[in-house]
Prior knowledge:
Elements: H1 3-16, E1 20-23, E2 26-36, E3 40-47, E4 53-61, H2 64-79, E5 90-98, E6 103-112, H3 119-127, H4 135-153, E7 160-161, E8 170-172, E9 178-180, E10 187-188, E11 191-194, H5 196-209, H6 217-220, E12 225-228, H7 231-246, H8 250-257, H9 261-267, H10 280-289, H11 300-317
Helix pairs in contact: 4-7, 4-11, 7-10, 10-11
Amino acid sequence: MNALGLSMIVKMGCICTRESVDVNGVKYVVKERLGEGGFSTVDLIENKGTKRKYALKRILCHSLEDQKVAMDEISYYKKLRHPNIIELVDSTFKGTADIVVNATSEAYIVLPYYRRGTLQDYLTLRSFNRNYLDVKEVLRLFSEISQAVKYLHDFAPEPVAHRDLKAGNVCLTEDMTPVLMDLGSCAPAKVQVCGAQDAQKLQDLAAERCSMTYRAPELFHVESYCVIDQRTDIWSLGCLLFALCYFKSPYDLVYERGDSVNLAVISGSVHFPEDTPFDEDVHDLILFMLKVNPSERPFIDSVIDKTRHLQNKIESVV
């Protein structure tokens, strides 16, 4: 057999052996890998019957504790219902986690697929030509994301904090509606820290699950006796609004320079570009959220009110 014939067989073999997955009796074909993190992978999958595409998040669980974390994530997908928060399509577990016999399980979470990708993807494309968004579009996107955050923070019986708000965790629909995703970092908003052990545990968890360049100062160095609340998300929203204006979090820029993000966050230093197309009111809204002391940081209702006031001001000028 010549090399060309062998090559064709290899290629055909790759097509024929494309992975299939079954989630509660529904069969899907894995099309391509969309993303990969420390704890999970995300694949593009296609329903064999309807040919509709979805995203499949797989979380490998090495212990019962890992499995509980995955179950908590699925629980948040099921109970959080808002137009700007991603919906759960289906979920299941494969295998059983048991640390004693060194077995693993895997959580399968089927989610909608957004062809446009994430807000960070969109901002990165625009950044190549420094193609700034119009201020109205910036505030529209930010306002809708803030409504999703308000829903979390007002959730009953217990408020929820996302804890990893960032441009990379916001998907965009075909009509440019922002949809908050990745609920794996969600947790009860209020955490009572009682002692050094509690503080270290929360600090380690934040380092594991909260992206450094969007992480609130109080999660870098957790005090031994304190209360952490939903205002960690407000800091992240401030970084996100900066990214809507300038394509990245202010602390992404620090990280890229090789400087200490930790020190920059703790100092609260924020540098706006000199050739900015955005006026002082937008910068004031960003700084309103980026207060190092969480007790001086606003709650989400104040952020929404200030955003609405700015939108009305811009509309009246036009």
